[in-house]
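ugh finaly. both done.
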Amino acid sequence: MTSFKAILVSKDDERYQARMTSLSPEQLPKEPIEVAVEYSTLNYKDALAITGESPIIRHFPLVPGIDLAGLVTKSEDPKFKVGDAVMLNGWGVGESKWGGMSQRAAVRGEWLLPLPESFSTKEAMAIGTAGYTAALCVLALKQHNIMPADGDVLVTGASGGVGSIAVNLLSNLGYRVVASTGKSSEVDWLKRQGAADVIDRTELSSSNRPLAAERWSGVVDTVGSHTLASACASTQYGGVVMACGLAQGMDFPATVAPFILRGITLVGIDSVYCSKERRFQAWDLLAKYLERAALQGLITIIGLDEVSERAPDMLAGRLKGRVVVDVNV
C-alpha cells in the first residue's frame, strides 16, 4: 500500500484540528511491528482528543484511537509473525503514541495481545477498552468477595460503553444490577442488557449527604464527581466501589464517613497500563460471560470519515453502547 487513510490531529498557534487525510508508510512511527488495522473504536477519551476538549494528546501531529484490531503485516518481534490477528488497548496509544484510527499502525509487541480465538477483530473492538475496563471492574468486585447474594450492584452511566457491558457481564454472573442513566428512552434497552431495575441519574448526581441509606453491595462508577460521592454514601457496610470514569467530572466531593463508618473500599480501575496477566484475565471473563447477542445490540459502526462529527455527540451523551470504527470503508 503506497498510502493509507487516517485521522490526524494537529495543533498550531491558531487552531486545533482533527481531519481525515492520506499518509505514506514512511510517516509511520519507527516501531518493530506493523499492523493492517481492520477496526478501531470511538471512546470517551478519543472524543476528548479529537475535539480538543481535554489535553489528551501529548504530541502533535498524532493519530488518535486507544484501540485497534487487525493483522500483523511486518514483525521484528519473535513473539508475533506476519498474519497474526492481534488487538491493542491503551499503553498510551492515541495519547502520546500514534493510535488506531488509521488503516496502518506501527506498534511494539509488549502493547499487543493475540486476538482471543472466540472473537473476531470486529467483536474485539465492539468490546474494546470500554468492555475490557468493565471486565476489570467485575474482576475487582469478585476479588473483594462481593457475591450475588450480598445485594444489588449499581452501574452508573449505564447506557455508555463501559456501563452497558458491565450490566451484561454482572447480570450473566448472577448479580442483580441496578442501572443508572439520564436517558429515559433507554430503560427497555438496559433491561434487555440484563438490568433488573433502572433509576434516573438525578437520584445520584447532586446529593451532598455524607451517608445515605445502604443500597449497594458494589458499584461500577463511570461518572465520577457527585455521582461517585453519592454512590459511596449509599454503599452498604463492607461494600466495594470501582471508579473507572469521569464523565461528570474529576472532582470527588465526598467525606471519609463511608470509609471509616461502613468500611467500604474504593478501588481505582486503570485500563491503560494494566498488566498483561490482568488483561488476559479480563478477556477470558468477557469470552465466558459476555452475551454475544447483547454485544451485537450494543454497537454502532461508523467509518473514519464520520469520526469527527460523532465525537461531540459522545461527549454530550447522545450516543449509547459502543461505537466501532471500520477504518476500511
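ok and the 2nd:
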Amino acid sequence: MLILRKADVESLLDGREQDVLDVVGRAYRLHDEGRSALPHSSFLRFPDQPRDRIIALPAFLGGDTKLAGLKWIASFPGNLERGIPRASAALLLNSCDTGVPEALLEASLISARRTAAGAALGALALGVEAAPRGVSLLGCGVINFETLRFLRTAAPSLAEVALFDLDAERAKTFAERAEATFAGLTVTVVDSAAEALAAHRLVALATTAATPYLDLADCRPGTTVLHTSLRDIEPEALLGAQNVVDDVDHVARERTSVHLAEQLAGHRDFIDATIGAVLRDPAALTRDPERVLVYSPFGLGVLDIALADHVRTLALAAGRGVRVDDFLTEAQA
C-alpha cells in the first residue's frame, strides 16, 4: 500500500496544471465513450446536522490503463467558522486484476483541482469568447481559487476578475492572494451578486448554497456560467438557458438546480449536451450567442481516480509517499 499525504499530493501537482487539464479531459472523453462504470454517489447525512454530508463516489475507468477506486469526501460548511477547510477527503485505488487496495491518497486537493480543471475545460469548450478577458467569481473559497488557477492556464488572456462573497473580509483576502499569485491580474471586489453577474461573460459559482437564489437576469447575452456548486440557480432560470452537464443521470438528483428544473418541467429536454460529447465533437452543441449557457458538472468519480492515478505514477517515479507493505495480511497479499 502506498500512502500519499496532502503535502505529497500538493508537491506533485503544483505547476502541472496543463497535465491535470489533459487527465480530466481524457477521463471525460472515455466516460462519454461508455468506457466507465459509475454508480450513483451515496450521501451520508446527519439527522441533526442538515448542512453536513459525507459522499462516497465509486468509479471504474477503462482505456489503456484500467482504474478503480472510491473517493470519500466530507463537506462541513461550519468548518469555515472554525478556521479549518470545509471539505476533507480520502481516496482509495484498487487493482482491477485482484481488487487489492493499492494506494490511499489525501484527496481534498485532488477533488478541488479536478473540479477546477473541469470548469476550465467547460469555459473553453462552451464559451462564446475564444480568449476571455475577464471572469466573475461568486464564492471566495478553495474551489474558485483553483478555478481561477486553471482558467489562467487554459486561457492566458484572462486579466480581470470580479469577486463577490457574502463575507466581505473573505473576498478581500481572496483578492489579495489572487493578485499576489497570478501576475498581471486585476481583481475587483464588487458589492452584490447582481454586479458580479453583469461584470463579465464568464461566471464561476462555487458557494455553499443549499437552495437556489439566482435568476441570471443580470447576466450579459452569451454569458457562460460554470455552476460547480450546483444549487445556486433557480430552476426557472435554467429552463430559460442553454444547459450542459457532465452526466445527466448523476446531476439530476439530490435537489440540485438541474434536478429541480427537471421536476418543474417534467422532462430533461432542456439539457442540450454533455461536456464529454462536446470535447469529443464540438458540433455536439450549437451555442446561441444571445442566451446564457449554464454548465452544471455534478463531479464524476472517474475524474478523481484518473487524477489520483496520475499522482500515484508521479509519486512512484519521485519516490514520494509512505509504503506500508504489511497493510494486508501475508495470505491476502
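summary for the 2nd one i guess: The chain has twelve helices and 16 strands.
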